[in-house]
Amino acid sequence: MASTSTSRVGIIGRRTFSTSSSRPAPRIRRWQWNKLDSKLQDSLVEYKFDDATSLGWLRLFKIREAQELFRKMEVDREALRAQSRPFIPPPKGAIRLTTTIDLSEPDSSRHMRQVLMVPVDGLPLKGSEATHRLKLIAGPRWTPHRPGNEIPSEGNDEVEGKEGWIKISEDRFESINMNRKSTLDMLEKLVDAANDPNSPLSTSIPLDTRHVLAKQNKENVSRRAKMEVVGGVRGFPREWLPQVQST
């Protein structure tokens, strides 16, 4: 008896339990589906173009929201007038930040990317040496002309951009505000380093404009002149040829 009970316990311990029902789901025949469809069609009301469409209703809702805002403005007119401030235009050369809404994936780096563009004339630099030192430190972030089309132009680029533009972009962080703060910190560090009178960077160093030439060559690929074949080598510079002395 003891051996029999032990074997039963072992079998129960190895058994796998399932939560699914052993009874199969009821099948619905085709004629039953047709009957349900006919009942559904009978319950629907025929559209006789006597009501607004879905787009029309959305339009009405938007109009109702605007009317509600106008009603609140009229009710709170005195409070709004007490909080109003006179408009003061920004000073010439002020830094402008533009935030765009990207409809791509929320975790995309393009969605979090922030771009800061400012003319060099609008920065608080101390003299021409500081301006030249800023261009040297900025490197490829400085361009003699307005870069890209991230921020719309206001038509005064020739006046403000005489000394070129600084462009700083940031997308390393997961927050838009953090990327924006990082661009501002970089700009402040550039200005402080350029205004440092004890800077070891000499102002006699010429500007490196290779990044500007590379961009121009990239944009003018189709109009680029074909390489000349010199001595059977395509693109070999003639300046490297040895000078033959005439006898």
SSE blueprint and pairings:
Layout: H1 2-14, H2 30-43, H3 54-75, H4 77-83, E1 96-97, H5 109-112, E2 114-119, H6 127-138, E3 142-143, H7 157-160, E4 165-170, H8 176-194, H9 210-219, E5 229-230, E6 233-234
Antiparallel strand pairs: 1-2, 2-4, 3-4, 5-6
Helix pairs in contact: 6-8
Task: Summarize this entry quickly.
This protein has helices at residues 2-14, 30-43, 54-75, 77-83, 109-112, 127-138, 157-160, 176-194, 210-219, and strands at residues 96-97, 114-119, 142-143, 165-170, 229-230, 233-234. With 247 residues, it is α+β, with helices and mostly antiparallel strands.
- How many helical stretches? 9
Rg computed from alpha carbons, rounded to a whole number of angstroms:
37 Å
Biggest beta-sheet profile: 4 strands, antiparallel
Order of the strands making up the biggest sheet: 1-2-4-3
Order of helices and strands: HHHHEHEHEHEHHEE
Q: Given the helix and strand composition, which structural class is it?
A: alpha+beta
- Could you give the count of β-strands? 6
Mean pLDDT: 76
Strand content bin? 5-15%
- CATH class identity of the domain at 96-207: Alpha Beta
CATH topology label of the domain at 96-207:
Double Stranded RNA Binding Domain
What's the CATH architecture name of the domain at 96-207? 2-Layer Sandwich
Pick out the low-confidence regions.
1-17
How far do the termini sit from each other?
126 Å
Helix content: 40-55%
